[in-house]
Amino acid sequence: MAATRQLRAPAMASPPRNVGTRTTSNPEIPEFLVGPAGRPVPAVGLGTASFPFVEENVRTAVLAALELGYRHLDTASLYRSERAVGDAVAEAARRGIVASREEVFVTTKMWCSQCHPDLVLPSLKESLQNLQMDYVDLYLVHWPIAAKPGKPQFPFKREDIMPMDLIGVWRAMEECHRLGLARMIGVSNFTTKKLQELLAIAKIPPSVNQVEMNPIWQQKRLAEFCKDKGIHLTAYSPLAGQSTSKVNPVMQSEVLQEVAKARGKSVAQISLRWIYEQGASVVVKSFGRDRLKENVEIFDWELTNEDRRKISQIPQHKRVTVLGILSPDGVSSVDLAELDIVEM
Fold it and tell me: Name one Pfam family in it (predicted).
């Protein structure tokens, strides 16, 4: 990405301003400088987790997002969307929507069944083959959990949980970076406790921690810890969509609805703007073109101090827990309480 577009990470409520121009209908999406090398991470990216997975739907959504100015695409070996993402980026380059693959920031993740020292590099190489790319911009450990080696499955059996060799896995992640196959390495769903364990042994600290984060689960303690340690937060499930429940505490929040009505914005825009003002980037799964456009129209206005005060008082509720990725039956030989990712 061009050096003129690189921006320093914002203070908690002082996001970077847009710079440069793009030939799209939307203003340019700002970026955060992340990691020791200060690599730019777009503030809003497209999440491609879709269950059930329909490859053509993902490919079409990625192309539409790139046309609208998105430059961050988030995938994972578990999602099965890597090939669709790669196809869409290649087509976008052929059509001149992007100048080249270099213009797109691509994140992928290694699943629990691949979370073994000898499987990290082969798993990344398999992802790169699916993506039809020589490197990813960011490679993440999807969960701080190891499972019986095999193809990524969701949910997986409780009896398949194994003790995780954190040192061995992270050394292999560092090798992925050294080889240039992952320009940055990081983690997902790591608590402050897990991050402390990792930082104690890491030669290359994680650049990013991707976690559930939204006004209903604000991650205040984790955000402060990551800020202190120079770890960038990326929010997934910013609209609390990762659940089979018909109740959505973000979209149905009376506080957020009140703020949205007063500001003439959607609840989704209020949530995304709030995350952005915390200094975090966000990946949001919206496949409709109108929603894709709406999700990046959050940079030419800001929340008021009163808006922020109201949002800070919203009761907290976490949607994603370790039990959500496990089959309901069976017994784990590892204490599940030690694996959970819930912290206030």
Answer: Aldo_ket_red
Alpha helices in 183-287 (DSSP H): 192-199, 220-229, 254-263, 267-277
Q: Which residues partner with 326 through β-bridges? A: 156
Amino acid at 186: G
The pLDDT value recorded for residue 324 is: 74
Residue 274 domain flag: yes
Residue 177 is assigned to a ligand binding site: no
Q: Provide the CATH number for the domain around residue 71.
A: 3.20.20.100
**258-265: long-range contacts at Cβ-Cβ below 8 A with a sequence spacing of 24 or more?**
258/310, 259/303, 259/307, 259/310, 259/311, 262/307, 263/301, 263/303, 263/307, 265/301
**How far from each other are the two terminal CA atoms of the chain, in whole angstroms?**
36
208-212 and 281-284: which strand pairing? unpaired
Classify residue 4: in a domain, yes or no: no
The verdict on whether 276 is a catalytic residue reads no
Q: Which of 79, 135, 236, 276 is catalytic?
A: 79
The stretch 279-302 carries a mean pLDDT of 95
Give the predicted TM-score (pTM) of the model.
0.89
**Domain assignment present for 19:** no
Confidence of residue 7 (pLDDT cuts 50, 70, 90): very low
For residue 312, tell me if it sits in a domain: yes
Residues of the chain by 3-state class (helix, strand, coil), percent to 5? 35, 15, 50
Q: Which of 163, 179, 108 is nearest to 141 (CA)?
A: 108
Q: What is the crossing angle of helices 82-94 and 55-67, to 10°? A: 40
Specify the number of domains making up the chain.
Answer: 1
Contact at 8 Å (CB) between 12 and 278? yes
The residue with greater pLDDT, 272 or 240, is 272
- Tokens 């995938």 correspond to what residue? 75
Tokens of 273: 């703007």
